[in-house]
């Protein structure tokens, strides 16, 4: 399923900034770049606020497991259900996770 909005490319953002620095109006820039004037205004506002028009880094803690390790754990548990939430499984294969809560969470939410 596609996203709800069209992503503005960096080249269009840079074009908008160049035109803005040449003292063109927001509506004129919108017509030149073929985007709405509200998009132009948002890009200019971002430039003034952050000093750049690049996408911001996403915040939040990194995942403890990459999807490959998660699928490995699920595969091993499917092969041998007695493993359950034991810590032995990850200590043998990767030293990323040693918390019982994480294993329980993987079992409840496999994907």
From TrEMBL:
Lineage: superkingdom: Eukaryota
Gene Ontology cellular-component terms listed: nucleus
SUPFAM superfamilies, alphabetized: Homeodomain-like
Main location: nucleus
Subcellular localization: Nucleus
Protein name as it appears in the record: Paired domain-containing protein
Species in which this protein is naturally found: Araneus ventricosus (Orbweaver spider)
């Amino acid at each position: 399923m596609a996203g709800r909005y069209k992503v503005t490319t960096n080249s269009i953002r840079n074009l908008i900034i160049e035109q803005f620095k040449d003292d063109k109006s927001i509506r004129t820039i919108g017509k030149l770049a073929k985007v709405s004037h509200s998009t132009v205004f948002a890009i200019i506002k971002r430039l003034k606020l952050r000093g750049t028009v690049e996408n911001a880094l996403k915040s939040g803690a990194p995942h403890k497991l990459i999807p490959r390790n998660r699928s490995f754990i699920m595969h091993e548990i499917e092969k041998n259900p007695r493993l359950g939430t034991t810590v032995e499984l990850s200590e043998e294969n990767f030293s990323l996770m040693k918390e019982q809560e994480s294993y329980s969470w993987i079992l409840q939410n496999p994907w």
